[in-house]
Write a structure and sequence with these properties.
The structure holds two protein chains of two kinds. Chain A contains twelve helices and 14 strands. By secondary structure, chain A is of the alpha+beta class. Chain A has a six-stranded mixed beta sheet, sandwiched between helices. In chain A, strand 2 and strand 3 form a beta hairpin. By secondary structure, chain B is an all-alpha fold. Chain B has a single domain, classed as ACP-like (Non-ribosomal Peptide Synthetase Peptidyl Carrier Protein, Chain A), CATH 1.10.1200. Chain B contains five helices and no strands. In chain B, about 30% of the residues are buried. The chains are: A alpha+beta, B mainly alpha. At the A-B interface, helix 9 of A face helix 3 of B.
Chain lengths: ~425, ~90
Amino acid sequence: MLAFDRQMKLLGFAGNQAQIVLGIKDRFSEADLAERIRTLKKRFPILEAKPVRGIVNRSPYWKIPSGTGPFLPCVRTHHAHDRAQLHSIKVGILNRPLDTRRGELFRLDLIHKEDAGMEVIMTWSHMLMDVRGAEYLLAMIGGSVSVPEDCTQEGLLSGCYTERMPGGSKFKQAEKSFGRIDELALNPPVSIYTRTRRALASRLDYRVISFTSSQTDNILELAEKHGGFLNESAYYAAATLGEFSRLMASKNIFSPGFVVPVSIDLRKKGTRMPVFSNQSANLLYGFDPEELEEFDSILASFTRQAQDAVRNDIISSSVSAMEYCRFIPSGLYAKKIRQAFKGEIASLVFANPGKTFAPLQSFMGCRVEYQHHVPSVVVPPGIGIVFYIFSRRLHITLVYVESMLTAAEADDFLRAVGRDLASGKLT
Amino acid sequence: MEEHGFLEQIQESVLGFVRNEIFDPSAGIETDTHLIEAGLDSFSLLKILVFVEKTFDLRIPESEISEERMCSVGNISALIHELLEKK
């Protein structure tokens, strides 16, 4: 997390952070919200911790504040008079970095809309927590879940990293993951960002497409029919990668291979604890260009790679590899990956967190009309897509480096993905 | 009687795996708990299928992997029992 955060900041981007956007019809007071956050910060000082590295072994850990210092202001209010201004404000918020060195690990922005409703945007650093943790924190702030005794866990993925270098058996396990990177490096991906970066601004933009509940039911039915039970990620990936390959072709960019990191939730099911902890790992999927020509071949390849990853315990290997990488200076780690992939990290970032957290149907006593997820994708590749279901409706967010795609290209891409999902083939 | 004992052994084994490796103890998984509603996802399902392969030397055919068959430890165990019988 630190490595990608550093890499993005070096390229002029905000960092490795993400957002949840809540659409609300009513309004509430900024002061009430700030007070709730203040109470939570008092109770969980890790919410204002600073990430630092040990002097001797360079191992990162959280420096927890004493609890008596001043709280960082973390609620801001904005006013939007029309849709264009609303989008412009939101893009500005997405591209404003969190001051993690001062302990700003999350913030909330309220946008008052012309129709008397508002949007609540929580931006958080991936160093502190993943999307499941962030949803829970937002629900705690909004008062729709009770506040547990403890939300933090010391350990590997919590940010309170282990102090000692892992042992030899872990290295053996990690080798599988490094081997997977070497395998993918034989046909390294080429990203749109790298090919066009000189002309690019260092800002992210995004688009969201939403489906009705009946359209969503139809898509999920088709996903089960084509991809099998509980395998909608493969179905979503088939539509995304098929259209992405076409987008690359339309820009005359040839890539010998396509690499897609897919975020995996490592938490035991049935819990969101620990909240202040990043419990996700990335599994790398690789595709030959020919595989991306047919919907069914992408689906089959994705499913086979997921099965192989579980059979060969690649997920545990990735976790062991991450444990080792904590002891490498973060810039060097990002550089090493980019060297292996000849300057790239991936072709496109993909995530399917599934159903959003049910208690977030209300916030500060107001009904939530819609919810969107907006990740800050790692650059390169500078483009990422996330699928999620809120209130029985599927939503897709496409995030990309501004000017890497035109707004029309981004809309066309999302529409094409939507058509493919609704028909079960590349249309 | 023996048949019943074998099914119970399968259930015990699957329940132990699902409780210890897939779900958090707070989820309180029992034989009849609806696993999908409790939060089972695609990777967890794959883990269960690989566990079945390794423990019972049995690969569950794709045609049998459905919500009805996979929704509880009881149903998964009954499916394993049925497939082992046919073997």
